[in-house]
Amino acid sequence: MAYRILIVDDEHELQNMVKEILTQAGYETDAALACAQALERFQAGNPDAVLLDVNLPDGDGFSLFGQLRESRDVPVLFLSARDEDEDRLRGLGLGADDYITKPFLPQELLLRLRSVLRRVYREEPDAARLGDAKIDWGKGIVRRNGVETALTAKEFTLLKKLWEARGNIVTIDALCETLWDGPLVGYENTLMVHIRRLREKIEEDPSHPKYLLTVRGLGYRLVREGMR
Amino acid sequence: MAYRILIVDDEHELQNMVKEILTQAGYETDAALACAQALERFQAGNPDAVLLDVNLPDGDGFSLFGQLRESRDVPVLFLSARDEDEDRLRGLGLGADDYITKPFLPQELLLRLRSVLRRVYREEPDAARLGDAKIDWGKGIVRRNGVETALTAKEFTLLKKLWEARGNIVTIDALCETLWDGPLVGYENTLMVHIRRLREKIEEDPSHPKYLLTVRGLGYRLVREGMR
DNA sequence: GCCCACCTTACGTTTACCTTACTTCTGCAT
DNA sequence: ATGCAGAAGTAAGGTAAACGTAAGGTGGGC
Question: How much is the pTM?
Answer without folding.
Answer: 0.74
